[in-house]
Amino acid sequence: MPHATGFGMAKSVEELLVYQKAMEAAADVSAILDRDSLRRDPRLRDQMGSSSERVASLIAEGFEQSTDRHFAQYCYRSRGSSRELRTQLVIARDRRHIVEDERARISNKYEEIAKMLTGLIDHLETEDRKHRR
C-alpha cells in the first residue's frame, strides 16, 4: 500500500499511514480476543473488540467528510478510542488474560496511533478546507 507523504496528498483512506497502523493494531487485538480466558470475560472481550475496530473505522468515516474540521472531529473520537483500548489492555493484563509484554507491545502501537492522530488533527485544523473533495 502506498504511504502518503503528507496528509493532504492521500486520495483514499488506505493511503494514510495512521489508518494502516490502526488496521494492523486491530489485527493484533483480534488475535488475543480468541483466547479462551477472554471468551470467559465476554464484556471485556466485546469492549476491546469494539474499541480496536472504532479506531480505524472513525478514521475511515472521517476521511469521507466534506470539511477538514469534520474530519478532525472523527480523529478526536478515534484518539479517544485508542486511549480506551489502552485502558482495557491494562484491565486484561490485571485479569491475567494477557501478559505485560503483550499489553506493552499493543499499547505502544495505540500510543503511536494517538500521536499520529494528534498530528493529523493539527494539520486538519490548520488547513481548515471547507471542501475536501
Q: Outline of this structure?
A:
The chain is an all-alpha fold. Helix content is 74%, strand content 0%. It is elongated and about 50 Å long.
What do we call the CATH topology? de novo design (two linked rop proteins)
Low-pLDDT windows of residues: 1-6
* CATH architectural arrangement: Up-down Bundle
Question: How would you state the average pLDDT, rounded?
Answer: 91
Helix content: over 70%
Distance between the termini: 21 Å
- How does the major sheet shape up? none
Q: Tally the structural domains.
A: 1
Overall number of strands: 0
State the shape.
elongated
Count of DSSP-assigned helices: 5
What structural class should be given to the helix and strand makeup? Answer: mainly alpha
Rg, Cα atoms, Å? 16 Å
Q: Write the H/E string, N to C.
A: HHHHH
Highest-level CATH class: Mainly Alpha
Q: At the fourth CATH level, what is the homologous superfamily?
A: 23S rRNA-intervening sequence
> Beta fraction of the residues?
under 5%
